[in-house]
Amino acid sequence: MCSKPVIGVFALQGAVIPHKPHIEACGAEFRAVKTQADFEAVDAFILPGGESTTMLKLIERFDLWDILAEQFAEKPIWGICAGTILMAETVTDPVQKSFNLLPITVRRNGYGRQLNSHHAPIDGYNVSFIRAPVITDISDSITVLAEHEGSPVWVECGNKVASTFHPELTMDYPSPMHKAFIAKI
Ligand code: GLN
After folding, report:
1. What is the strand order of the sheet 102-107 is part of?
2. Which ligand 1 atom is the nearest neighbour of the CA of 52?
3. pTM (2 decimals)?
4. Is residue 89 part of a domain?
5. Which atom of ligand 1 is nearest to 14's Cα?
6. Which residue segment(s) compose the domain that 46 sits in?
7. How far apart are CA 165 and CA 155, in angstroms?
């Protein structure tokens, strides 16, 4: 691509703005996206961390499921924490609806509650696990980019990427995960 890629960060809920300096440090354009017209105008999506149940409720309330499913099928997407939960094929604890974009199973809040949130170095970069899901199963088509405490935490399959941790909250720009994702576009 010759012009700057435009990265749409899904902005109904969650950690949206902290992505801006990382995306800009990679030479791409940040855009917070909420509507069908916004979705159609971007080259790739980040589904940010936040609360997957709240995101699901807002997607239903604004009737965005079908347009998002159509856009997500076509474009590169990186899901972070709650975003990983929305992208998974199967969600447990409890079972909930998802876009089924990656053949993985995730257990919500798999490290425990808020008190078990923690920082860890992944690929030499300090990231945050905040009420993170644990990826409990992956299909053979998944490439594991990083593991933590014995489970995959950063995975990809084609143009779909997921991380159970937040790199965007670390103020050292850009994170290796933003660099890797934007390099794919
Ligand atoms: N625990 C949240 C959920 O289940 C995810 C937390 C996060 O995105 N940091 O949706």
Report:
1. 88-92, 102-107, 134-138
2. 10
3. 0.97
4. yes
5. 8
6. 6-183
7. 11
